[in-house]
Design brief:
Shape: globular
Radius of gyration: 19 Å
Structural class: alpha/beta
CATH class of the largest domain: Alpha Beta
Number of strands: 14
CATH superfamily of the largest domain: Aldolase class I
Strand content: 15-25%
CATH topology of the largest domain: TIM Barrel
Low-confidence stretches: none
Order of helices and strands: EHEHEHEHEHEEHEHEHHEEHEEEH
Length: 325
């Protein structure tokens, strides 16, 4: 297991799109983990603002993620703003890594197999993130995390590998670290935290759901067609599935808005926007991203408590795992 100097506690908060605001990111980093924000769908002004907001709340390291299915036109803005760490997913960041290096920014890349890890290792990243199909949100992987992690660790050498997908507890983290992970990436668990920008109804729905409530689908494909994503089954999904999973233009109720943003902009049914705290409308019908970790979340608590709880549990379990070998 390769060690990493990224943070004090090897717990990374996944860049859970609009649920990951400055307060969640800073809370995780201040607790010793590594908080994050997603910059993919932000413009230059929003990018500067959220990075400034994070820095006003913490002097600890954090990271920003870019989904390379979308053109990162504002990547240079993030570097100029002094983001300490960046991660990339859904693409090859070869042209961006050089710029990050020049800015003194550390780089992590999400991979899903030994083959993709080998290609990304040619870029000499500071760390890799091995994602399993259990992850919530848009899922790049098609294989179980234990398989992906084992394969990636086998080729990573001294490059730290973080496990992502379906993790919620210290037992989950301990199991991944025993396989060879340097730490774990937790998404759904932090969406269900008090600092999350997710709507309170959505947070409650996550902690009350069971693992059988998630589904990997292409139902909520607004702005990102054909990308598989794991969500809670809800009224929109069930109506679509009952209709035979029809293509856009033929889906039940697709002309109806399920809610409205804080600016009053309609959120169409089948859009990929999750319900934020400032949205109104029928939150249940929106995209409720969730990994298979649901059923193990406990309750909605502060992010710092989540970091400490997971780490304390893992520290207690890791020696027991080693003894049984």
């Amino acid at each position: 297991m390769a060690q990493t100097p990224l943070c004090e506690i090897p717990i990374l908060q996944a860049p859970v799109a609009s649920a990951a605001g400055a307060h969640l990111c800073a809370a995780v980093s201040n607790a010793g983990g590594l908080g994050s924000v997603s910059l993919t769908w932000r413009d230059e002004e929003d990018t500067r603002q959220i990075l400034s907001n994070v820095r006003a709340l913490t002097d600890k390291p954090f990271y920003a993620n870019f989904v390379l299915h979308f053109n990162p036109t504002h990547f240079g803005v993030a570097l100029d703003a002094g983001v300490p760490i960046v991660t990339f997913s859904w693409g090859n960041p070869a042209g961006l890594v050089k710029d990050a290096r020049s800015a003194g920014t550390k780089v992590g890349v999400q991979v899903t197999s030994a083959e993709s890890a080998k290609r990304m290792l040619e870029l000499e990243p500071d760390f890799l993130i091995a994602q399993g199909v259990e992850a919530g949100g848009h899922v790049q992987s098609v294989n179980p995390l234990t398989q992906v992690l084992t394969d990636v660790v086998s080729v990573a050498g001294d490059v730290p590998v973080f496990a992502a997908g379906g993790l919620a507890t210290g037992a989950d983290l301990a199991r991944m670290m025993h396989i060879g992970a340097a730490g774990g990436v937790f998404g759904t668990r932090f969406v269900a935290s008090t600092e999350s920008d997710a709507h309170p109804w959505y947070r409650s729905a996550l902690v009350e759901a069971s693992p059988l409530d998630t589904v990997l689908t292409t139902c909520f494909n607004g702005e990102w067609p054909n990308a598989a994503h794991r969500v809670l089954q809800n009224s929109t999904y069930l109506a679509w599935e009952a209709a035979g999973c029809p293509s856009p233009g033929n889906r039940p109720g697709e002309d109806e808005p399920t809610g409205f943003t804080a600016e009053g902009i309609p959120v169409p049914r089948y859009d990929n926007a999750m319900p934020r705290f400032d949205m109104t409308g029928n939150h249940e019908a929106m995209a409720l991203y969730a990994g298979t970790s649901i059923g193990k979340l406990g309750s909605v608590i502060p992010a710092a408590n989540i970091v400490q709880l997971i780490w304390n549990q893992a520290c207690a379990i890791l020696p027991e795992i080693a003894v049984t070998e």
